[in-house]
Structure formats: structure tokens, C-alpha cells
Amino acid sequence: MKDECKTLLDALNKVSACYRHLVTCAGGTSDSQNLREELKKTRQKAQVLANANKNKLTTILKDGTISKDDRAEFERLWVLFSTCMEILEMDMRRALDLGQVFPLSVPTKHLIQTGMIGRTSAVAARAMNVQNVKYEEGNDIDTVDLNELEQDINEVRGMIYEMEMKVNVLQWTVEAKQEPGTELKSPASAGASSLGMISVHGDGCKKLCDTSKICAGVMFTAVLLFAIALAACVVKFA
Questions:
Q1: Which residues cross the membrane (predicted)?
Q2: What are phi and psi of 100, to 5 degrees?
Q3: Which of 146, 125, 145 is nearest to 134 (CA)?
């Protein structure tokens, strides 16, 4: 049961991350009918996974017979799920705003030069585990899909509210099992990202923070001295 919940949550995270990647292309030079269709199909897939996660976790957490350790683990999954849902809703709102500002049929504004180029079909296909993503032709994406997107946003918001009402999990009482940034230090995560390797060094961060504090102090002192000098000049020539 626990592995099944983790698998569902992992799938939701991947599809939500894909959706966020696609949203960054909306309104840009790579925006197109295909991109809007990819956004639609990806968010629909995310909603299906979200419903599956919600039903599974709600049923388990409402069961009073599970052990204390199991409940703590499922509550952690619940917090991760809630956070994912909030991010998904935020990205859906962003997609709605960009779709309204940058319509495809009758463009009223120039597309943003975001630097994002290339096709996005491969990303959507990997996230939805399909080989070929087919799109509907002749669909008025500027009106029909935006109306559906508004409805989907309301459904996600309602789902979040329903989650909070059915399961009383206080997020600030749930303890993490790992230190912050632990996943970034593991060898597996280092090779998983195609954007490059991320390393975290505690001493380096501490030195960087100390240097930033020193620079901020110097700048503040310089501004203060300049203000005093300016005030003196005003008094002198008044």
C-alpha cells in the first residue's frame, strides 16, 4: 500500500513538473496550437493522478487501525501531495493568464522572446508515457480550452479544500525524515538531471553568507556616510 502511494505521488510529481515546463513556453516564440494541446492533455493527466492520490491517501488516513509509524509516513506523503497540488494550481492559473494575454487566433501582442526553442512534444510524451501525442485539429483553443482551464482550476481548488476538510493533517507538525538538501547530495540525483549536476556544500554556503553580510554592511555604511555628508551640505548652504 505504501509503495503504491509513493508510485502514484511520483507519477503526479513528474507530470506536474512537465506541465510547469510547458507553461514556461506559453506566450513565447515556441508557442503554438500544439503547445496548447500539450498543456491541455498534460493537465488532464495530472488531474487523473491527483484524484487517484487523493482517494488513496484519504482512505488510508481516515483508517483508525493503522499503526503510528505508518500514519506518520502517510502524513508525510499527504504533505508532499498537498504541496504538489498547490503548485499545480498556481501553474494552471499562470497558463490561463498567458493564454488570455497571448491568443493564437487573433494575436494582439507580440510573443515574448524567452529564448525557449525547439519542440515540446517529447517532454509531454515522456511524462504521459505515450509514444505519439496526437492533437485535435480545428479546435478553437483560445476560447474552448481557456474555458475548460478555468473549470479545471476550480476543480483543483475544490479538491484542495475537500482534502483539508476530510483529513486533518497539520503540515507544521509533520517531521521530515531527511535533512534539507539531502536528495541533492545523493549520487543518484546528481546524474538524474539533464540540466546539469547540482552540488551542495555547507561550508561554501556559510562562507558565501558571511561574505554577503560583509558586503551588505559596507554598502549600508557607505550609504549612511553619504547621507550624513549630504545633510551637512544642505545645512551649510541653507
A1: 216-235
A2: -75, -35
A3: 125
The span from the CA of 36 to the CA of 28, in Å, is 12
pTM of the model as a whole: 0.64
Beta partners for residue 112, in sequence order? 28
Between CA 33 and CA 42 the distance in angstroms is 14
Specify the higher pLDDT residue, 76 or 196.
Answer: 76
What's the CA gap between 225 and 194, in Å, rounded? 48
Q: How many other β-carbons are positioned within 10 Å of the β-carbon of residue 80?
A: 18
**Rounded to an integer, what is the distance from CA 229 to the centroid of its chain?**
48
Residue of higher predicted confidence among 190 and 219: 219
Residue with cell 493503522: 66
Pick the CATH number of 2-192 from 1.10.3470, 1.10.10, 1.10.287, 1.20.58: 1.20.58
pLDDT in tens, 96-122: 998 888 888 765 555 554 545 555 555
The 8-class DSSP code of residue 203 comes to H
Measured torsion, CA atoms of residues 50, 175, 196, 42, in degrees rounded to the nearest 10: 10
Round to whole Å and give the CA distance between 213 and 158.
44
The Cβ-side half-sphere exposure at 4, using a 13 Å CA radius, reads 8
Q: How many helices (H) does the chain have, and how many strands (E)?
A: 8, 0
For the chain, the structural domain boundaries read: 2-192, 201-238
pLDDT tens-place string over residues 126-155: 555 544 444 454 456 678 888 999 999 999
Question: Three-class SS string for 127-157?
Answer: HHCCCCCCCCCCCCHHHHHHHHHHHHHHHHH
